[in-house]
Amino acid sequence: MWDKVIRFLKPPVFEDDEEKTRVVAMLNAALVVLFLVTFVGSTAMIVLEPGEWIFNLAFGVILCVIIAWLWFIVRKGRTQIVGMLLSFVLWLSITALVYFSESGLRGSSFTGYFLVVALAGLLLSNRGVLIFGTMSVLAVVGFYIAEVNALIPVSLPPQARLVDLIVLSITIG
Predict the structure, then answer these.
(1) 23, 123 contact by CB (below 8 A)
(2) For the chain, what is the HEC assignment?
(3) Is there a contact between 105 and 164 (Cβ–Cβ < 8 Å)?
(4) pTM, rounded to two decimals
(5) Cα 129 from Cα 23, distance rounded (Å)
(6) Which of 84, 96, 169, 165 is closest to 131 using CA atoms?
(7) Contact 19/64 with Cβ under 8 angstroms?
(8) Could you list the pLDDT tens digit for every one of the 173 residues in the chain?
């Protein structure tokens, strides 16, 4: 049985294009791991935060469906579009998690922007890294402005500090 699962999850090989085979293998591994992490993480969050089960269920299901869809596309060798879409979907997911969390920039969700930039670096060109790095810094700046002006609810600490904005922007940048 495990042989069938492994064969099913194994990335395709493109005999005529070694680079495409390498990128597809990397994307395949990333998508399988992200699917498992999303599934397990969403399930754990449903159990651990029963008051937020609708959000956690919807978030997990939507993200798992998108990741599965991207997995099927990458198997056709469409590496560039899957790399861009995966980076964007992860960036959007992190942004949603930061927005809906009660801890804002001091929560753990925002650190996902590092994953987005690193993944863009592995899957896309230098331009992709610059685009997703800039988007991540702009998101941090936007959250900082929203927290300072009390546009989004944040429970701990009561107000964002300018030093938080600078440290996060420099680190992500």
Answers:
(1) yes
(2) CHHHHHHHHCCCCCCCCHHHHHHHHHHHHHHHHHHHHHHHHHHHHHHHCHHHHHHHHHHHHHHHHHHHHHHHHHCCCCHHHHHHHHHHHHHHHHHHHHHHCCCHHHCCHHHHHHHHHHHHHHHCCHHHHHHHHHHHHHHHHHHHHHHHCCCCCCCCCCCCCHHHHHHHHHHHC
(3) yes
(4) 0.81
(5) 16
(6) 84
(7) no
(8) 788 878 888 888 888 888 888 889 989 999 999 999 889 888 888 888 788 889 889 999 999 999 999 999 999 889 889 999 999 999 999 998 888 877 777 777 788 898 899 989 888 888 989 999 999 999 999 998 988 888 887 765 555 556 556 556 655 65
- Give the tokens for residue 71: 């997995």
